[in-house]
Amino acid sequence: MTDAYNYDDLEPLPLNLEGVNVATIMYSDEYKHTLGLLRALQAKKEYSDRALALTADAIALNAAHYTLWQYRYHNVIELKKDIDAELNWVEDIAIDNPKNYQIWHYRQMLLEYWGKKDAKREFPIIETMLDDDTKNYHVWSYRKWVVQWTGQWEQELSFVEKFIERDVYNNSAWSHRFFAVFGLGLDQVTDQVFEREVKYAKEQIALAPHNVSSWNYLIGVFNKLNKPLAPLKDFASQYATITDSMTPIQSIPALELLTKIYKTSEPDLAIKGYELLGSKYDTIRRNYWDYQKSLIVQTN
C-alpha cells in the first residue's frame, strides 16, 4: 500500500463475507486491509487524493472489482483531475488486464464526462490490445462505442480488413465489419455497397470454404437488406451438392445454405439436404436437422 498518505484515522471495515458461501475466497491480509480502508472512506463519502491513491492500490490487487472503479471515478470528478492523465493511467492497467470489462466501461465514463469526441485519442490503445488478442470481445465492443460516439466511421472498413486478412476465421472481425457497413443505417447501403460486400465475402469464402463466419456474413448481408437467398444457389453449389450424395462436399455451411434455398423451391431436395446434414456432415445437431426436416414434411 502507498506510503504517501496517512490512513491512521481510519478503522478498516469488514468485507461483508458473512452468510452462506458456496466457495469462500481466501483473500490476502493486504487485500482485506486495503479494501477495508476503502470501505471506510466510502462510508464517510470522502473524496481526496489519499482515497484516489488507495483505489490505485486496490485496483492493482483486483482490477475486476466494479465498485473500486466507480469510487475512483467519483474521486477523479470531484477533485477535478486531469482526464487525459487519467486515461493514460488506465491504458497501463489495460495492458496488464486485457480481458477486464471494467477498464473499458471506466474509459467510456471518463470520455463522456470529458466531452472530447476524438476517436484518434482512443484508437492506438484499441489497436494495441487487438494486436495482442484479435478476438478480445470487450475491446471490439469498446471500439464500436467509440466510433458511434465520435461519429468517426470512415476508417472502419480498412481497419477491420487488416484483422480479417490476418485471420479469416475471426468472427469478432466479421461482426465488426457488419457494424461498419450497416451501422449508419440501411439508407447508406447502396447497390454498389451491397455488391462490394457480396464480392468480398465470396472472396474470403474461397480462401476457407468451411469457415462459418464468412458464410454467415454473406447470408447476413442478404437478410439485412431483405433480399432472397436464391441468387446464391450457384455460388453455394461450387462447394456442396445435394443431388449427388456420393460426391464429398467442400463446405458444410454451403450445404446448409443450399438446403435453406431449396425449402421454398424444391422441398424434396431440402429434405435430402437435412438428411445429409443430420446423418453425415453435422451429426452433433442431428435433432435440429430432423426437426427442420419434419417442418417441411408437415407442410407438404
From TrEMBL:
Family of the protein in this entry: Belongs to the protein prenyltransferase subunit alpha family.
Organism per entry: Cyberlindnera fabianii (Yeast)
Cofactor requirement: Mg(2+)
SUPFAM superfamilies for this protein: Protein prenylyltransferase
Entry keywords, A to Z: Magnesium, Prenyltransferase, Repeat, Transferase
A single GO molecular function term of this UniProt record: protein farnesyltransferase activity
Gene Ontology cellular component list: CAAX-protein geranylgeranyltransferase complex; protein farnesyltransferase complex
A Pfam match: PPTA
Name by which UniProt lists this protein: Protein farnesyltransferase/geranylgeranyltransferase type-1 subunit alpha
EC number(s) given by UniProt: 2.5.1.58, 2.5.1.59
Top-level division of the source organism's lineage: Eukaryota
